[in-house]
Amino acid sequence: MKQTFPGYYRPTEDEFQNLWGNCLFVLDANVLLNLYCYSESGRKDLIEEIFKPISDRLWVPHQVALEYHSNRRTKIMEQANKYKNIQPQLRRTQQDLDQLRTHKEHPFVNVELIDKIKDPLAEILQELEKRKQEQVELLDADHILHSVTELLEGRIGCPYGEEKMQEIYKQWKTRYENRIPPGYRDGAQKCGDLILWLQTIDKAKEENKPIIFVTDEAKGDWWEREDDKIIGPRPELINEMKYRAGVSFYMYSADEFLERVPEYMGLQVKPETIDEVRSVREIDEALANLRFLPQMLAAMTRVPEFRLPPQMLEAMTRVPELPPEMFEAMTRAAQFQPPPEMLKAMRQAAEFRPPPEMLKAMRQAAQFQPPPEALKAMRQVAQYQELVRQAAWALGGMGRISRETLEGSSVDESVEPDSEDEQEGEAMDAIPPESAGSTSPDESAEPNSEDEQEAEGTDDKPEAEDE
Hints:
By secondary structure, the chain is mainly alpha-helical. 61% of the residues lie in helices and 5% in strands. The strands form two sheets. It has a four-stranded parallel sheet with strand order 2-1-3-6. The protein has a two-stranded antiparallel ribbon with strand order 4-5. A hairpin with a 2-residue loop joins strand 4 and strand 5 (229-233). Helix 10 (254-265) runs antiparallel to helix 11 (271-288).
């Protein structure tokens, strides 16, 4: 069974030793982009002490290299903006200290102590400004790009041709509808994960070597989770690699990869480097969970009963500019572990696959456009119903219309009165008994005897018969 379903079995220690000893190490784009988030010492330790010693076994799919170059400048500016967002807070602290320094008459205000706090604060502000300028300068003189280019020279895969890409787009549609990993969580229009995955399979088949994929991706279409804890790669990925390339496959986050390197490769990694890499990954995961926040807030503000203070809305819709305290609170919220029952229900809901007939019907319903005549008729009916409702309520308040007419069950516009007599008769019929002044109490009373009934019957005979 293990040969048929390898994805559902954790490799043994011997299998891990064989995997690490013979594999190709494939790096994801986020691992390369996160080099811009590390300190100079952490970045140097990662490149010089880990990646370069195993560079002969490094390989990057063409899609990964494309995403790295496409997003490099954006990543640089993200880091520069982080310095920019911290500086105003520190300057406000400086102003608060200056105000506190003026209260010399207060017995507990120690001016010398305040000066000792202000001096390091000023140094920190200068250092932040320096780091921010260094980040911005990377746009023109990027030494990190130079290091990555040198590291991966000759180790990047070839792009797919146009015909192959068209084939992948068709394949992607089927995989997306059936939620086949990887990449279906990126949306129907994004198939970058599938392209890099297929390029990795092709490379593994060509070299006949197992694959260790290093990624800081956290989405559920790459990782198998249990009670919100990562167990390992999705079984479907391991099975597909084994079936199509005939080799083993495993995945690690960047910090977990660094933790395993000393054991399997004999390379030493500084503990502070591992901590820094883990911290960056966890922050990225927390921010990834907040990507939907502006859309959610926009939807919430459209609900009349729901109101948030304008200041809170403004701050929350500008996620990158949130203060550190709120980021810390959001990170704690992202680490919240719901009970197993909730997780199970959420996974079942996320993994629900509607049948093709339902998907087809939903797409047809979304694309249905009623003809202009139908839309015009519907609008006229809606307007007519509104007018009838308003008129009915107005007349109903004066007691001049019956309940059936109010409810619209006895309104017949197709019959019009033919003469003035009929119009007058209809008008008289609409007048309730209490408002008809010509009717005496005796006439409105019910007949008490046969003689009275006979008399009324005689009065009801037509005038023509009397003549």
